[in-house]
Amino acid sequence: MAQPPNKTSTKQNDAERENIAVVKEYMSIAYSPTQNKGRASVQHLCTEDSVFSATTTFPDCHTPLDYADSHSKVMSAVADLRIVSYDIAFAKDGHVLLRYSAEGSHCGKPHNGIEPSGRKAKWSAAAIFEVRNGKVHSFTKEWDKLHMFKQLGWMKGNEYV
Question: Could you tell me if residue 72 is left (phi over 0), alpha (psi between -120 and 50 degrees) or otherwise beta?
């Protein structure tokens, strides 16, 4: 599967390049409105004891599998969501950092009672992964969802502040 371009990276050894490839495969599935059918879509890429953290944006998700489930629901509303580029991608030993830019529009199902508007949004996020034995063991996500929500018209006031 073709991956979005890297804008900035560093020199990686073979094992680090393999770790980046595993993480990008996870991301390409988890961020695909057609491939992400929830946890079963990415289970083969995660350790059995994998963990996830994004306490301000996905507080009920505790594993990368939970995140795939939750993200599939977001993508049902933003049905054309795509990662535009990996702005920064590098690995050191078993850790991989991705900062990425994404875009999409509210062209799918209603979101929290808000009907599709066609409004477009662009945003960026960062993800830190730990890869063990060729599988995602941990995933920490940093993302300002309010920026995306505001662009899509999903904020009625200060309910997320």
Answer: alpha
pLDDT by residue (tens digit) across 46-98? 999 999 999 888 899 999 999 999 999 889 999 999 999 999 999 999 999 99
- State the DSSP string of the chain: -PPPPBSSB----HHHHHHHHHHHHHHHHHT-TTT--SHHHHGGGEEEEEEEE-TTT-TT--SHHHHHHHHHHHHHHSTT-EEEEEEEEEEETTEEEEEEEEEEES-SS-BTTBPP---EEEEEEEEEEEEETTEEEEEEEEE-HHHHHHHHT--SSSTT-
The pTM is what? 0.90
